[in-house]
Amino acid sequence: MPAHQAIRQLTFADAEVVLERAQRLLNAGDVSKVMKTFTSDVVVRFADFPETYGRPPLEAFLRARFARQKNYRLQKQLRAVSGNVIVCYWDAEWEDGHDGRQMEGRGIELLTMRGDEIAKWEATFNVWSKGDGPSLPIV
Hints:
3 helices, 7-stranded mixed beta sheet, globular, about 140 residues, alpha+beta, about 25% helix
């Protein structure tokens, strides 16, 4: 971003629009439309996957994800807005594309916006088989 371009200060209403759009498009599994919500030089730090730069690796990641996450049902909840950064919590359910297991997950996201597009997507993600409950192998 050019130094002369000011960072847009987001309101809660602005952030809610971004999250509603993301939730709607992800629930529809429409990767082509989801890609239009990101800048061309987007930085992605998703869970323990290697950091990526730009739309092509993000699109490959999302297509692989949706091949595995059938009937994806996502709910995002806005938690905070600071400047151009949106913080949200999310829950999701889906059927595993390999074996049909019912799955659940949840996570936290930080979305750094540039205008109306996501310039950086940072996310944590925990997943488990539905009914088993989450587990963290540190206790």
